[in-house]
């Protein structure tokens, strides 16, 4: 073997190392790809996406999705407790104040006595925040007392109902238990973990708030793929479009009953949920316009636009939560060829009556403070207003 040269040895070594790396790549790809084995799915948290998607991370961080549930931030929450606030609901007075560095709410408990309760986390941001108070056996209760950061005032989300301790819907009772009633839409991947025998919750969430993986699915496999040599398969990240996209937003933006706890982005809504249908006049008006709080999904599914393939992303930016354009420009992206705004509406475009959304997406105020727009894109009809008491179009109709 006199012609055996050192370079051959080096080449052989390089090939060997490459094969070993390839083998590692194959095994880790198979291990973490959630398309292979759903029980092996791994969530890594939005923070791990930051290094490669900085701008998106920043946009998302300022959005209400990131704030949907969060720990108490002293500075942000201070105006609710300092100076102390008195909250009057019908004949009951509660207080919000600070004591020894802790924010406290003094209000009626389920034993019918007033006590100090210490909130640990917050739901929502603007125009209203509700407070989460941990109790024993893993129960977390959500206050019906809420704070409006713009008006800097407290109010009750149930208005003047003044719910009492014996009622199911009283804040400290099961109707207002975060674990079953709120957690899954305000967080990323919730495991309710209710022990029915002991009546104890061990609820955990992959990430507090609506994180990247609430919409994109578990991210570990995607990150590993980008850190490997990209030799195997395609990027396993979930790409959302069409009806899968709408269903992935709709699962939280819908009034519905859950059949499973197992929705992953890309799944279909109807495989996991029963939506609220317009067969009930308390919920919808006879023309399909939303009456009670139904969020967005069912209304949109009934619209002609849904059936023509329009999706949430034709109007919304997914990371900021803002609309793509302000005013009529949003609608004229597609309607400019047939609709001349002034001729169509008989109003100047800078008047409230000249805005497409004021006639086709009328507003209703929910939770006492939040005006929301109807996503059924219905056609206003004066005859229905008279005969079926469908409210007239326009800002602030209730
Ligand atoms: C090691 C770097 C890296 C990390 C960490 C990372 N990504 Fe990516 N990601 C990329 C690259 C590179 C692309 C392709 C180029 C692009 O779209 O920016 C990409 C693309 C994407 C896409 C678009 C895929 C497509 O083709 O439409 C999504 C969605 C995505 N990443 C989500 C995430 C999420 C969620 C996380 C955190 C769980 C994350 N990424 C973490 C590198 C990374
Ligand atoms: C895991 C549940 C969840 C998913 C999935 C989800 N959202 Fe949301 N979304 C929320 C919650 C909760 C809020 C309200 C948060 C708050 O006010 O603090 C919200 C708020 C919004 C807002 C209001 C933004 C604002 O600034 O007022 C828009 C618009 C929105 N979501 C659109 C979408 C779209 C589009 C998708 C799909 C691409 C989507 N959401 C997916 C839970 C979700
Ligand atoms: C089916 C999903 C879902 C459930 C369950 C849910 N929420 Fe929400 N919540 C949302 C969405 C979506 C929004 C944003 C609504 C919008 O802007 O149209 C929101 C918004 C909010 C806001 C912010 C104010 C606002 O109007 O934007 C608060 C506060 C809130 N929810 C509290 C609660 C409480 C308390 C519970 C439990 C009793 C709860 N939510 C249960 C989906 C849900
Ligand atoms: C409310 C749902 C939602 C959240 C939260 C969300 N995204 Fe997205 N994102 C989308 C949708 C929908 C698209 C467009 C369709 C697609 O590419 O799957 C998208 C697109 C992307 C893309 C590719 C297109 C682009 O704009 O470059 C990347 C990368 C991405 N997201 C990363 C992230 C990261 C990182 C986070 C968290 C910091 C995040 N997303 C949070 C819904 C969301
Ligand atoms: C991505 C394109 C797109 C955008 C953006 C869009 N539309 Fe449409 N819209 C359509 C299509 C397609 C139809 C089906 C009928 C047609 O072609 O005119 C439709 C139909 C409608 C209808 C008729 C509904 C019916 O029951 O007959 C109304 C009303 C409407 N759109 C209002 C709006 C408003 C208001 C906006 C802005 C907030 C808007 N559209 C934005 C594509 C779009
Ligand atoms: C003052 C109220 C009003 C405003 C503002 C308004 N519409 Fe309409 N729109 C109507 C009424 C009423 C009808 C049904 C009568 C008709 O077909 O002309 C209608 C019908 C429609 C239709 C379905 C009929 C068709 O021609 O295809 C579309 C699409 C539509 N509007 C889009 C828009 C868009 C886009 C804007 C904003 C540029 C807008 N509308 C502004 C009242 C309004
Ligand atoms: C044709 C355009 C269009 C489509 C499609 C659309 N939206 Fe909207 N959406 C709007 C407009 C306009 C507003 C009002 C924005 C404002 O007032 O700043 C809005 C507001 C919202 C809000 C804030 C609260 C409210 O109801 O006013 C949420 C949440 C929301 N949309 C979710 C969604 C989701 C989820 C989808 C898909 C299922 C979707 N939207 C589809 C145009 C659209």
Give the topology, please.
Layout: H1 6-32, H2 54-61, H3 64-67, E1 69-71, H4 74-81, E2 85-89, E3 92-99, E4 102-108, E5 114-117, E6 121-123, E7 129-134, E8 140-148, E9 153-156, H5 178-181, H6 183-186, E10 187-191, E11 194-195, E12 200-201, E13 204-208, H7 212-216, H8 220-227, H9 242-250, E14 256-258, E15 273-275, H10 297-301, H11 304-307, H12 329-335, H13 341-345, H14 356-360, E16 363-366, E17 370-373, H15 382-388
Antiparallel strand pairs: 1-6, 2-3, 3-4, 4-5, 6-7, 7-8, 8-9, 10-13, 11-12, 14-15, 16-17
Helix pairs in contact: 1-8
Bound molecules: heme C (7 copies).
Tell me what the structure shows.
With 398 residues, this protein is α+β, with helices and mostly antiparallel strands. It folds into three domains: 87 residues, no CATH class; 140 residues, no CATH class; 145 residues, no CATH class. Helix content is 28%, strand content 19%. It contains 15 helices and 17 strands. The strands form six sheets. The protein has a five-stranded antiparallel beta sheet with strand order 1-6-7-8-9. Strands 2-3-4-5 form a four-stranded antiparallel beta sheet, covered by helices on one side. A two-stranded antiparallel ribbon has the order 10-13. Helix 1 packs antiparallel against helix 8. The longest helix has 27 residues. It is globular. The N and C termini lie far apart (93 Å). The C terminus is likely disordered. One heme C binds next to helix 12, helix 13 and helix 14.
């Amino acid at each position: 073997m006199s012609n055996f040269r050192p370079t051959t040895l080096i080449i052989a070594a390089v090939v060997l190392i490459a094969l070993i790396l390839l083998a590692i790549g194959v095994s880790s790809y198979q291990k973490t790809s959630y398309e292979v084995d759903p029980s092996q799915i791994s969530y890594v948290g939005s923070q791990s996406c930051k290094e490669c998607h900085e701008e998106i991370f920043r946009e998302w961080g300022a959005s209400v999705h990131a704030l949907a549930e969060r720990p108490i931030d002293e500075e942000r929450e201070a105006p609710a407790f300092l100076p102390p606030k008195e909250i009057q609901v019908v004949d009951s007075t509660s207080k919000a104040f600070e004591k020894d560095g802790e924010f406290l709410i003094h209000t009626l408990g389920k034993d019918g006595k007033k006590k100090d309760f210490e909130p640990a986390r917050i739901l929502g941001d603007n125009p209203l925040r509700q407070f989460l108070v941990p109790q024993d056996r893993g129960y977390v209760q959500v206050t019906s007392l809420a704070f409006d950061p713009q008006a800097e005032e407290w109010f009750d989300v149930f208005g003047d109902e003044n719910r009492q301790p014996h009622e199911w819907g009283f804040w400290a009772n099961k109707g207002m238990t975060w674990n079953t009633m709120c957690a899954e839409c305000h967080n990323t991947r919730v495991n309710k973990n209710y022990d029915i025998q002991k009546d104890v919750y061990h609820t955990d969430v992959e990430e507090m708030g609506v994180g990247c993986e609430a919409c994109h699915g578990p991210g570990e496999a995607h990150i590993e793929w980008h850190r490997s040599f990209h030799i195997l398969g395609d990027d396993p990240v979930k790409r959302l479009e069409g009806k899968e996209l709408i269903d992935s937003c709709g699962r939280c933006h819908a009034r519905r009953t859950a059949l499973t706890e197992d929705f992953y982005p890309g799944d279909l809504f109807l495989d996991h949920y029963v939506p609220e249908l317009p067969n009930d006049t308390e919920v919808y008006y006879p023309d399909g316009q939303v009456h009670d709080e139904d969020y967005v999904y069912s209304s949109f599914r009934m619209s002609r636009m849904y059936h023509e393939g329009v999706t949430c992303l034709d109007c919304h930016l997914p990371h900021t939560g803002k609309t793509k354009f302000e005013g009529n420009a949003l609608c004229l992206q597609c309607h400019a060829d047939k609709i001349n705004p002034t001729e169509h509406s008989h109003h100047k475009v800078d008047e409230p009556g000249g805005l497409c959304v004021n006639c086709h997406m009328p507003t209703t105020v929910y939770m006492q403070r939040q005006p929301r727009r109807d996503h059924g894109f219905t056609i206003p009809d004066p005859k229905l207003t008279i005969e079926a008491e469908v409210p007239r179009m326009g800002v602030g109709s209730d």
